[in-house]
Amino acid sequence: MLTDDPVMAHSRLSVPMNLGLLHPMEVVEAVLDAYRSGDAPIASVEGMVRQVMGWREWVWHLYWHLGPDYTSSNNHLGATEPLHEAYWELDGEAVEAACLSHALEQVGATGWLHHIQRLMVVGNFSLQRGHDPQALTRWFTDAFVDGTEWVMPANVVGMSQHADGGIVATKPYAAGGAYLSRMTDHCGGCVFDPRKRLGDDACPFTAGYWAFLHRVEDKVSGNHRMGRPLASMRRLKDLEDVVLQERERSRF
Ligand SMILES: Cc1cc2nc3c(=O)[nH]c(=O)nc-3n(C[C@H](O)[C@H](O)[C@H](O)COP(=O)(O)OP(=O)(O)OC[C@H]3O[C@@H](n4cnc5c(N)ncnc54)[C@H](O)[C@@H]3O)c2cc1C
Ligand code: SF4
Questions:
Q1: Rg (CA), the chain
Q2: Closest ligand to the CA of 184
Q3: Domain count, the chain
Q4: Quick check: CB of 233 below 6 Å from ligand 1?
Q5: 49 C-alpha to center of ligand 1: Å?
Q6: Longest dimension (CA), the chain
Q7: Is residue 231 in some structural domain?
Q8: C-alpha angle with apex 91: 87 to 94, nearest 5 degrees?
Q9: Cβ atoms 163, 173 nearer than 8 A
Q10: Separation of 26 CA from ligand 2 center, angstroms?
């Protein structure tokens, strides 16, 4: 995730495909042609075909498989908070966290973010802060240029918010500031410090990560993939202070 390169190597073809203007097989055939003519390496070709024929098709079939009540009947982590007002206003300046601010600003300007921004910045923030998954689904549907009904349940309710308790994804996609610091160039220019979990400049993602694990501990403790993160959380000597701080946090 780079401040000056919002698109990176992504195709932005979800829009014409979701609008029915471009058939997914046309994309796959074009990519295979590029491989046959020596214009694209096998790793790139495999990646693109997997996204379109693998992920997109899987999500489409999950929509029918999971059924019409999937979004309204799943809230495994008991998330009932309203979305932060900056979401609805698409106002990046309403938050100080550089990574989130940049993402919201970009949604407002273009209606599009690439997958990891959706999952690990916006989705991660909502997961940690306990945003209502149904409200988040509505927001993604309304705010994104590729936001169609069928693509939301598996991606938002399942993958991003773990609201189905593990039907779509085997564990919650939660991560702290250390991950975001490694994967983005936002932290250097941020008022918060990704290494800090306590204090005025404690990163809301770092502190939020631990407070999130504390809140959902009972609901995820049976998941073997959560064993190590939960053990790390239990070792934190300042956990109670972090939880209290995040409960009262007003600066994001
Ligand atoms: C929280 C969240 C919300 C999302 N919301 C949407 C949405 O509203 N509309 C949407 O089409 N996708 C959505 N996705 C999936 C994915 O992020 C987008 O399809 C992708 O970012 C679109 O950009 P692109 O066309 O440049 O994708 P590329 O990275 O170039 O990938 C190529 C194509 O693969 C397909 N694809 C890859 N992953 C997925 C996936 N998980 N689900 C469906 N198709 C996939 C898309 O058709 C995409 O155009 C969401 C993912 C998350 C985690
Ligand atoms: S310090 Fe925290 S809030 Fe700021 S950009 Fe890094 S991860 Fe985001």
A1: 19
A2: 2
A3: 2
A4: no
A5: 13
A6: 60
A7: yes
A8: 95
A9: no
A10: 39
For the CA atoms of 86, 92, 94, 96, the dihedral, rounded to the nearest 10 degrees, stands at: 120
From the alpha carbon of 194, which atom of ligand 2 is closest?
A: 1
120 lies in some domain: no
Q: Is residue 7 part of a domain?
A: no
Ligand 2 atom closest to residue 206's alpha carbon, by position in its atom list: 2
- One pLDDT digit (tens) per residue for the chain, 252 residues: 999 999 999 999 999 999 999 999 999 999 999 999 999 999 999 999 999 999 999 999 999 999 999 999 999 999 999 999 999 999 999 999 999 999 999 999 999 999 999 999 999 999 999 999 999 999 999 999 999 999 999 999 999 999 999 999 999 999 999 999 999 999 999 999 999 999 999 999 999 999 999 999 999 999 999 999 999 999 999 999 999 999 999 999
Beta bridge pairs of residue 202: 193
Q: Which domain holds residue 49?
A: 14-66
Rounded Cα distance, 108 and 242, in Å: 32
Ligand 1 site-directed mutation target among 100, 145, 146, most atoms within 8 Å of CB:
146
DSSP letter for each residue of 217-252: HHHHTT-GGGHHHHHHHHH-TTHHHHHHHHHT----
Question: Looking at the domain assignment, is residue 151 inside a domain?
Answer: no
Between the CA of residue 160 and those of 65, 105, 166, 243, what are the distances in Å? 18, 20, 11, 22
- CATH code: domain of residue 208: 1.10.10.1710
For the chain, report the end-to-end CA distance as a whole number of angstroms.
19
